[in-house]
Amino acid sequence: MDKIFKQLIDQRNTQTPQDILQSLSQESTYSSLEPLDELICFQTQESVETRRERLLKESQCKGKLNSKQYIIASLSLDQINQLIKQNLQKIPPWVNEQTLSIKTKSARAYFHSEVLRFVEWIQMSDAEIKQRYEILNEIEKLVQIKIPGTQLYMFGSTANRLAFSGSDIDILVMNNDYGYANLYNHVLHIMVESNLFESIDDIRNTQVPIIQAQHKATGISMDIVMNRDDGLKGLSLVSTLISKYPELRPMYFVLKAFLKYKNVHKPYTGGIGSFVLINMIAFYLQMHYKRVRDINEKVFLQDHIICFFKFFGRQLDIKFLGFSIRDGGFIFDKDHEYLGKEGNTREDFKLCIESPLQFSDDLGGSVRNISIIRKLFNLASDVIRYNLLNSNSFVLLIVPEAYKLKNLDQD
After folding, report:
1. What pLDDT was estimated at residue 161?
2. How far is CA 45 from CA 40, 291, 388, in A?
3. How far, CA to CA in Å, does 97 sit from each of 9, 88, 302, 400?
4. Residue percentage of the chain with pLDDT more than 90
5. Assigned CATH for 20-45+245-405
6. What single Pfam family name could you report for this chain, choosing any that match (predicted)?
């Protein structure tokens, strides 16, 4: 058995990122889902579990309360109930009367529609995207005058249409005739001398040196990297995943908003970055379709998000297991000789995600706050369970200040 398993692993390890993209882009039995607005969905089967008694016991346990807990604890029961009622009855700005009318027919269909309306409301507009590509062209012309043959590309959330309104942009500068440091210095000098940018930061003491700057005329911020095509490979991979899994994009916007609200969305502070989140959502959907099998069974978006919280909050044993989205998704033992990732073993309570672009890399190792994030996932799941049917917004239940995320500078 070990010999057979080794052969399978060796076969996986001979795959290239291009092989992965090709396999993901092949037509699948569930890639032709109807538009999400048209879904007639069913209720996801969930394991019967309740944590009410334990939560009540925990609330009575001894220990110091922080300032926010003390304020809440000092409120009377009537005041607490009134605050909950006010929050539940809020109608979010992304919901119009037509959408709200769906609730009288089906609450579940309403929350599904609300998630889609939230995405339309929070996403970067076509005008914003056009403006950012105009900035890209402006910088490219500027650089090509000094460094002929240089090409500039947009990558990241803006290029993938996954950016929130007001987001900054990620730019790749490519010229194989220059080394990284040489090209970096040239581009930095050009930007400083151009008078088109302000707040220029020369950030070299990182794994990937970047130039950060702000476009004077528009105030749009940007991160610029040199001669790294992994951003373009990631762009192609994410585009393929979005095409294959229509649910991924709306799930991403809600979960990203949740992580931002909890301030656990920045990789350099131990949070879940965009590419890690995309891998997590894709893997959850892969496991969902393996479990459901019947492609005609469809799920409301809020059910997917609830199950995502449960899967990564409770069900996946991250102490022992890692996962990959290769080959339709698989789980591996973190201590396995061929699949285990260096520096992330059973001794470490860390998220372990094989990079689909560089199989030896562990995307999850940077999520140092995974223990805190798992608790946040579990809390969100409980909040939804006990309050959703009385609420006018699924999104506001888990992101109470979601309306503040629009048109702000995003990370």
Report:
1. 94
2. 16, 11, 17
3. 54, 17, 20, 21
4. 56
5. 1.10.1410.10
6. MTPAP-like_central
**Global pTM value:** 0.78
User: Tokens in use for 384?
Assistant: 């939804």
Residue 130 burial (CB count, 10 A): 9
209's tokens: 């040196």
Pairs from 290-299 (Cβ < 8 Å, separation ≥ 24):
290/328, 290/329, 295/29, 295/30, 297/42, 298/33, 298/34, 298/39, 298/40, 298/41, 298/42, 299/41, 299/42, 299/44, 299/247
Helix boundaries (H) for 332-406 = 370-387, 394-398
Instruction: Tell me if domain 20-45+245-405 and domain 126-233 are identical in fold.
Output: no
Q: How confident is the model at residue 4 (pLDDT cuts 50, 70, 90)?
A: very low
| Contact indicator for 309, 380 with CB cutoff of 8 Å | yes
Long-range contacts of 85-92 (CB under 8 A, 24+ apart): 87/396, 87/400, 88/387, 88/390, 88/391, 88/392, 89/391, 89/392, 90/392, 90/393, 90/396, 91/392, 91/393, 92/118, 92/392, 92/393, 92/395, 92/396, 92/402, 92/403
Structure tokens at 71: 């304020």
Above 70 in pLDDT, residue 103?
yes
Query: Is the pLDDT at 66 greater than 70, yes or no?
Result: no
Pick the CATH number of 126-233 from 3.40.50.2000, 3.30.460.10, 3.40.50.10420, 3.20.20.450: 3.30.460.10
Task: Please give the C-alpha separations between residue 182 and each of 197, 210, 263, in angstroms, as whole numbers.
Answer: 21, 13, 36
Which residue is associated with the tokens 């040196």? 209
What does the pLDDT read at residue 37? 54
H/E run at residue 311: none
